[in-house]
Amino acid sequence: MPAISNSSGREILLRTYVLGLITNRLTSAALTLLIVSFAVFFATAMLPGDTATILLGQAATPEAVAGLRAAMHLDEPAFIRFGRWLFGLLHGDLGTSYVNNISVAKLIGGRFFNTMELAGIVTLLAVPLSLTLGITAAMYRGSLYDRLVTILTIGVISIPEFMIATSAVLLFSVYLKWLPALSFATDVTSLWQVLKIYAMPVITLTFVVSAQMIRMTRAAVIDTINTPYVEAAILKGASRRRAVLLHALPNAVGPIANAVALSLSYLVGGVIIVETIFNYPGIAKLMVDGVSTRDLPLIQSCAIIFCVGYLASSRLRTLLQSWPIRGCADHDHIDHDAPRTQLPDQLDRNHRLPSHSLLGDHRTARTAYHALPRRRDRR
Questions:
Q1: Most confident of 7-16, 34-43, 337-346, 349-358
Q2: Of 76, 209, 237, 343, most Cβ neighbours within 10 A?
């Protein structure tokens, strides 16, 4: 009975900790959204040029410009305009576009699906590819394959997104003429045309997202390999694949999920650059067009959507990182009455193999296991 009460107490403490963590993260996210909306509004308001003058043209009379400014409430102080927009946002009203004079929600609704479609395709390609390369690189750490993956990922991380996108346009569109430079067309009639249209932005974003994810996945798996229960599995004669897939990988799910969430958060910045370069009709391209026309409600709404996406990914990553992971207890089931041999040089004073030899020859690990000192069973 005491064991049951102790277990129940730990579960209550864990639930209280997680609930408090979620509450703190949601509060900080709401405060961050408020600060971002405030910064974007006043940064856009301080841009040179006047929205009414841009819409009417340079030939407009001062009376027409003044009338348009009064109609769009641009003659009011900035704090009042920001408060009106924030009040409408809290009630689900994103405002009306200055340029098109239609609801911002309708403008974003037509582009939101395109951006989510692009992000979904990139996620479906980048996550399996990154996990496969990161886990296999950790399994064969120090090999030629591991060094090649490391060099490629560091090279991709060192190159900015716009450079990768511009190089892809020059290579595949200008010189090879395999793919179109623009990634959207209305006269799509076959699956091959769809693949050609999405190829350039998907390839660019996959390179950007996968590089960081591979590095973090490899590091997470290696850290788990260095834990005592994986060392115990090696000492018991487990093969390299079995030690990683059955002992290390299940306990590395939390850090790997953290790496995936962190890497996918880079889609927020990468989508803006990719949609602009490839003229993809998404939310990011709509936001860039709104900046050129000083369309404040449109810019504010797009910035809030991107901020919400980034904060959701960041908070999910924080929760996954803070969630306790139960270790494996295979080392408690070692048969200490097995016949012993001479202690090899690989074992240190704590009877643990050094990290560089954990995935070495399993016969050496079995010999080291039999060399462990006996421990009498407690009776």
A1: 34-43
A2: 209
Place of tokens 């290579």: 171
φ, ψ (nearest 5 deg) of residue 62: -60, -35
Please give the torsion angle defined by the CA atoms of residues 190, 194, 196 and 198, in that order, rounded to the nearest 10 degrees.
Answer: 180
Q: What span, in angstroms and rounded, lies between the C-alpha atoms of 272 and 289? A: 12
**In angstroms, what CA-CA distances link 219 with 23, 115, 226, 341?**
30, 31, 11, 34
Q: Which range is least confidently modeled, 3-7, 269-273, 352-356? A: 352-356
Among 278, 234, 252, 254, smallest CA distance to 368 is for 234
Considering only 173-177, 304-308, 311-315, 325-329, which range has the smallest mean pLDDT? 325-329
User: For 166-195, how does the pLDDT look when each residue is reduced to its tens digit (9 = 90+)?
Assistant: 888 888 888 888 888 776 655 566 677 777
Radius of gyration of the chain (CA): 28
Q: Where are the domains of the chain?
A: 15-47+94-330, 334-370
The C-alpha angle 288, 290, 292, rounded to 5 degrees, equals: 75
User: What is the per-residue pLDDT across 266-275, written as a single tens digit (0 to 9) for each?
Assistant: 777 678 888 8
Question: Running DSSP on this structure, what letter comes out for residue 170?
Answer: I
Q: Which residue pairs, CB below 8 angstroms and at least 24 apart, start in 141-144?
A: 141/222, 141/359, 142/356
- Tokens standing for 103? 């609801």
Measured CA to CA in angstroms, residue 186 lies from 6, 116, 119, 340 at distances of: 64, 18, 20, 74
| Whole-angstrom distance, CA of residue 122 vs CA of residue 213 | 13
Residues in the chain: 379
| 270 and 161 Cβ atoms separated by less than 8 Å | yes
Global confidence as pTM: 0.71
Euclidean distance between CA atoms 63 and 274, whole angstroms: 41
